[in-house]
Amino acid sequence: MTPRDPAGPPAPLPSDVSPPPHGAPGVADEPSGLGALGTLGGADDDGAKGHRKPRKRRWPRVLIAVGVFFALVVAGLGGLVWQRQSSYNGNIDRIKGVMPDQGAKRPGPNVAGTENWLLVGSDTRADAATTGDGGQVWKPGQQRTDTIMLLHLPADRSKAYVVSFPRDSWVEIPGYGNQKINAAFSFGGPKLLIETMENLTGVRVDHYGAIDFEGFKSMTDALGGVTVDIKQSVYDPARKVNWTAGRQKLDGEKALLFVRQRYNLPNGDFDRIKRQQAFLSALAKQAADGGTLTNPLKLDRFLSAFTKSISVDESVSGGKLRSLALSLRHLRPSDVTFMTTPFRGTGTRGKQSVVLLDPAKSKALFEAVKSAGMPEYVRQHGGGNSLGTVS
Predict the structure, then answer these.
(1) pLDDT tens profile 117-161
(2) Does the structure show a pLDDT above 80 at 206?
(3) What is residue 323's predicted lDDT score, i.e. its pLDDT?
(4) Which residues make Cβ contacts (< 8 Å) with residue 7, sequence separation at least 6?
(5) CA 116 distance to own-chain centroid
(6) Which residues make Cβ contacts (< 8 Å) with residue 124, sequence separation at least 6?
(7) DSSP run (H or E) holding 147
(8) What's the pLDDT tens digit per position in 221-239?
């Protein structure tokens, strides 16, 4: 039924049709909304005759077509995302038997909602990667760890705290007495290293992650390089590389050389720790600010490189990683605090050069991690390492 035409009387109804009640669908009582729009485009011709030809109501079919189109697009994107997530999840190497056994003496559970990851970098100097897709994460007696970090995530995920441990830290290794902390990985692999860390800190390790430095290389190239700022020119005698003071754009190969340098740095391994932290910070900044997160191709390349480069404990499922990523989606590079375990200085034990941790200051830091008190700790003791420029 069409709206009443103001130019003439309504057309007579067929004898077998009753007039619709007032307000029934299809009758426009007010010259507004869809009823008003329905009078446009036909009143001039049909009004002179006293009535209009019924218009075919095409908008429901248009809406259905649009709805079907968007449903297909959403379904297609959903399928693509699912396929890529499945691929990323399949790239990750999961190590069985990494976490300490049930009967092991371990710290109690952490504060509800917080999470602690032990992150290590493999020290094989091998041509092929030893973590991630197809890699062997540990060979007894043949590997140590260049990088040992404890990642602490508060319950609200508003911040992240990364505590580095000097690889030469003189600590007690269960079953082996006092040794350099990186020897734990050589003696007993990830499990013994976790036990050593828990024994040292009193903090329960929830998850384990390992990456070979070759993984740094592939991730850097996937992002198109990262930028670091070097405080003063320095020469690496081990790899015969000159580093010029100032901002340096590093590709994957240069990044690998940058994080590996130890000799000829003013503060030795402590400067290398800062280099590694500066690189990780630059990597996160490039991923966040370099258009990676908004460019599907860049993001795919980076996530593919990342997931092919890491190994985790077997309890880290694809769902766990997705939930972790979602919980950290609002985290900015500036929300990550990097620090080094407090130490008194260096010394010797036998013929070994070692790092002597500061028991009292270290205990305060570990207690802050254990009790979810890191914000207060940072307020009292400072915001961690300055990574604007590094040696």
Answers:
(1) 999 986 453 343 434 444 444 455 455 677 899 999 999 999 999
(2) yes
(3) 82
(4) 43, 47, 48, 50
(5) 15
(6) 130, 139, 142, 143, 212
(7) strand 144-153
(8) 988 999 999 999 999 999 9
Q: Where are the alpha helices (DSSP H) in the chain?
A: 33-38, 43-47, 59-91, 183-201, 213-222, 252-260, 269-289, 296-307, 318-327, 359-370, 374-381
pLDDT for 258 equals 92
Query: What count of other Cβ atoms lies within 10 Å of the Cβ of residue 242?
Result: 8
290 and 224 in contact (C-beta within 8 Å)? yes
Cα–Cα distances (Å) from 66 to 34, 61, 74, 146, in that order, read 19, 9, 12, 56
Amino acid at position 69, single letter: F
More confident residue, 327 or 82: 327
The helix or strand, by DSSP H or E, that contains position 177, with its residue range, turns out to be: strand 177-180
Spell out the alpha helix ranges (H) of 119-230: 183-201, 213-222
How far is CA 115 from its chain centroid?
14
pLDDT for position 63: 52
